[in-house]
């Protein structure tokens, strides 16, 4: 039976997915600085259109000429992100008003409020710091975090999914390791995108015709680099971008091996549905990643690759939620204690 707030949570989750994909599209169309200010666009609520507006933009932003399609892409992303922030605020307010209801998540919606406020700040810094790679990557991770937390909240409010008892500890560890590796791989993907390194290796399975080309890992992962005037198009040399791309490929191999092992353990534990879902999400993401290189980063495939990463992250979120400990033995032998603990778990810090 669904709990109050489920429909709003589902709507917010779908909206968050749209925002993530719009963010990817904005980056891939080089529209991250389509509006050089924040939260408006050249001082207006939309892209300048009239002669007076264009004159104002040219006067106040002489180094950033108006490119209509880039400004439009950026502002559409901002409007959808603003709508998502409002939906999350509504979830937080509703959860607070229902905090006395047993089983009503409260901590999770409030955490989402904090995350979306941080996301707004990173969205501003993405523009004001001129696409500084550290901020761009953090902004991407914040978007994936928002989507994953909304998905988790929706799952909890759905009343359909529940933790599975008697899960082997090995399976739980594999699920946790797989989750961590997927997060790191998404961060690497963000670093690839922020540094324009997606085509540093334009061939498969080699890179630049070699198994291990010249690569500058020190500069490729120089996380304390100074804030530059403008990072549109990237500032790293070829060897540094090659290092980033190679690391992303190695990460993909590690994620694949880890998730294949997890899928096998899920199958052995009788959780064939989750194993199949994981294999499907992994297979699609691998195919999209290979297609990006083989077809030289077509925008539709590149955006789909971002969607595939999000789908894989949500799959791992669901798996880790379902295999977490439920203390079935305690519940059977001490029902009174279990009922009390159940209330504490929902009203305490795990909400």
Which short descriptors sum up this protein?
351 residues, mainly alpha, disordered C terminus
Helical content, roughly?
A: 55-70%
Low-confidence stretches: 327-351
Q: What fraction of the residues are assigned to beta strands by DSSP?
A: under 5%
Task: Describe the global form.
Answer: flat
Instruction: Indicate the radius of gyration in whole angstroms.
Output: 22 Å
Describe what you observe in this structure.
It is built from 12 helices and no strands. Helix 1 (6-28) runs antiparallel to helix 5, helix 6 packs antiparallel against helix 8 (238-268) and helix 8 (238-268) runs antiparallel to helix 9. 68% of the residues lie in helices and 0% in strands. With 351 residues, it is an all-alpha fold.
Concise overview:
With 351 residues, the protein is an all-alpha fold.
How are the SSEs placed, and which strands pair?
Layout lengths: L5 H23 L22 H10 L7 H30 L9 H22 L4 H26 L10 H26 L22 H4 L17 H31 L3 H23 L4 H24 L5 H6 L1 H13 L4
């Amino acid at each position: 039976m669904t709990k109050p707030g489920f429909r709003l949570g589902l709507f917010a989750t779908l909206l968050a997915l749209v925002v993530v994909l719009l963010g990817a599209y904005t980056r891939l169309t080089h529209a991250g600085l389509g509006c050089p200010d924040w939260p408006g666009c050249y001082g207006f609520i939309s892209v300048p259109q009239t002669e007076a507006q264009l004159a104002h933009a040219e006067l106040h932003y002489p180094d950033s000429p108006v490119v209509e399609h880039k400004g439009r892409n950026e502002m559409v992303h901002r409007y959808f992100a603003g709508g998502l922030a409002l939906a999350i605020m509504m979830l937080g307010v509703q959860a607070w008003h229902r905090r006395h209801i047993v089983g009503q998540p409260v901590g999770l919606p409030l955490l989402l409020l904090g995350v979306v406020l941080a996301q707004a700040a990173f969205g501003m810094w993405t523009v004001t710091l001129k696409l500084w790679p550290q901020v761009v990557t953090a902004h991407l991770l914040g978007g994936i975090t928002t989507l994953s937390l909304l998905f988790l909240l929706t799952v909890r409010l759905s009343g359909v999914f529940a933790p599975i008892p008697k899960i082997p500890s090995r399976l739980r560890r594999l699920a946790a390791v797989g989750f961590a590796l997927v997060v790191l791989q998404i961060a690497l993907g963000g670093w690839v995108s922020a540094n324009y390194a997606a085509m540093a290796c334009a061939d498969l399975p080699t890179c630049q015709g070699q198994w291990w080309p010249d690569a500058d890992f020190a500069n490729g992962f120089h996380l304390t680099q100074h804030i530059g005037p403008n990072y549109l198009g990237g500032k790293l040399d070829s060897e540094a971008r090659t290092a980033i791309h190679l690391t992303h490929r190695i990460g993909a191999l590690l994620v694949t091996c880890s998730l294949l092992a997890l899928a096998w353990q899920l199958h052995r534990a009788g959780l064939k549905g989750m194993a199949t879902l994981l294999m499907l999400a992994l297979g699609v993401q691998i195919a999209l990643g290979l297609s990006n290189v083989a077809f030289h980063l077509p925008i539709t495939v590149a955006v789909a690759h971002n969607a595939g990463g999000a789908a894989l992250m949500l799959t791992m979120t669901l798996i880790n939620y379902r295999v977490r400990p439920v203390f079935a033995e305690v519940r059977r032998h001490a029902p009174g204690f279990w009922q009390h603990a159940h209330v504490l778990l929902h009203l305490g810090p795990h909400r």
